[in-house]
Fold this sequence. Notes:
The complex is a heterodimer. By secondary structure, chain A is mainly alpha-helical. Chain A contains 14 helices and 2 strands.
Amino acid sequence: MAVVEEMPVESTPTWAERIPAGYWALGMILLVMPGIAGDFVLYQIFGWTFILGIISLSLMFLGGYGGMVSLAQMTVAGVGGYMVAIFGVSAIDTISLGWPWYISIPLALVIAALFATLTGWLAVRTEGIYTIMITLAISAAFFFFTRQNYVIFNGFSGFNGVLPPFLFGIDWRGPIAFYYLTLFWAVVCFLAVLYLSRAPFGLALQGVRDNPRRMAALGYNVTAHRIAAYTFAGVLAAIGGILLTWQSAQISPGTASIGAAIDILVIAVIGGLRHPIGPFIGAFIYVLLKTFAIDALTSVGLAGERFQLLIGIGFLIIVFFSPDGILGLWEKVRAARNRDPLIDRGGERP
Amino acid sequence: MSAFAQRHPIWTAIIVVLAAALLWMIFALWPLWLVDLIGRKKIFLNALFNGITLGGLYFLVASGFTLIFGLMRNVNLAHGSLYLLGGYIGYEVANLTGYWLIAFPVAFLLVGAFGVLLQFVVFRRMEGQDLRQTLVTIGISIVLADLMLWVWGGDFYQVLTPSWLSGPLETILVTGVKRSSGDLIYLKYPMVRIVIFLAAVVIGVGIWLLLNRTRIGMLVRAGVDDRDMLTATGVNIQLVFAGVFAFGAGLAGLAGVVGGTFQALAPGEDVRFLLYSLIVVIVGGMGSIPGAAIGALLIGLADQFGSVYFPTYAVVLTFLIMVVVLAFRPQGLMGRA
């Protein structure tokens, strides 16, 4: 019996229809934000959120899709920032080479990617928790090295006066211009990770995360996939690092300190390692806390310096109750709401 | 030993020659060309001794770390905080009572008790989830660091050395000849460092004996090899876990007092010692006490010789050792593959 298959009435959705409505709304709000928010909010809150989000996104890519939690992402970002300061223009003109931006920025990205690849090459020799330890050791070594090296990294004080290039007659450190600059790169990195997670490479990487042995048996080069993931994440982190350097117009060892590296991990974990939007959520919360916690704490009668305590306790609570961060919490709430009270009364499904 | 010599005759020869050269450099009077080449013998000997004693301190910190890791697969990134906490406790106790020696048991017990608390309240709930445990320890270290900053502020603290330990000890090693009279000059070395190093050796040998010659040690070693099987034989594994965690944390606290005596206590020291214990156990091999000893000695020596002979890059030297070990022996020098 021949059954004529019914043609689907609707054609396949166009690319515009495949994007959920929430994203459209978020995109619109972000685009018109400069009309609503003041300079401080644009530059400090959103600019910083996007930058930290990008760096955490690189960690989310490694951790979420590759299963490798690296604490060296802030270090890679630091390498990117330092390279821009060294090859480009800064106030320390005895060291800075003063090359034009179209050479210094690509060079910085390449060197940061190389550094990330080397880090990856070392780190993938180990697995799981070992990776955290080795990347932590690498980031600490970089911190101490830059603090003591005056020939290249200018030691404790680092570089100041590192400004974005004056392109198209726009001062890119102006609040609105910087907002759009960081927004642009955040969206680019977000889409790149989203795309890559569904591309063959990303799928293979997720396979490697779930079962490296089987992937090796299938003929995939497990080590190469992992190292390539480090390289890609390194490029993301370097973009974030360069933007971070421009935002504060300086880079010093403190930028890539161990505390900063751990902050990046905290951001990624608070947001959630499941989806690339997580790091941005985490970064937003972190920046809000960091900016306003001092006021909030002093109003309750505590000293404002106890900010770290707040962050640490918040981090502990998140790790305790929702290993997948805010995103995981959100999914739990949604699952609880959609549950049919007659069918399942809590507990695990069979 | 002889089996090794038979299998690797060339390596054995190289090791023997190096050891002989080292011994000669320690005991002989240096000829002028050697002094011209690498500086005075006193500097060399001081770097050597400082490296060895620093290695002793690193060993104290790292042995607890590696013990906890070996049994529980728990990378305790709050270990540096436990070290600093122990140091502060030791400082307070030594200041209150006036007895330096009391600081050690008190710091050991208090920090060990804190470790048990951590094990029962936190880590027991997430057994087998390595990554989550590690993340929790990061959170704990952030909180602890800020709490300690709150209580003790950002100042430097030093645990006071008792009078019978302060001052130098004249050793039998010759560093040079007095030009005026022709008398031999002997090396003077701080008494407290020698005592602390000897204590570290005693503790290290003690841990080794405990692990290899007692019933408790047998349980711990069995737990390292196969946790499930040990549980199946009727051993209360939670008790073993708690005991090892307490002991490891207590060692960190003890090391804190030691570190507070011959270095200083300040915020940031927690991260520094965490980093060094990480490197030590990566170099020495995870979960191995002899490995921790070798790694600590190596890193301590590299640190001191580095800071004497190429001051800017001392940190990089220790790091390079780690990279080389990882590249050629990822499981660490004494680690099991």
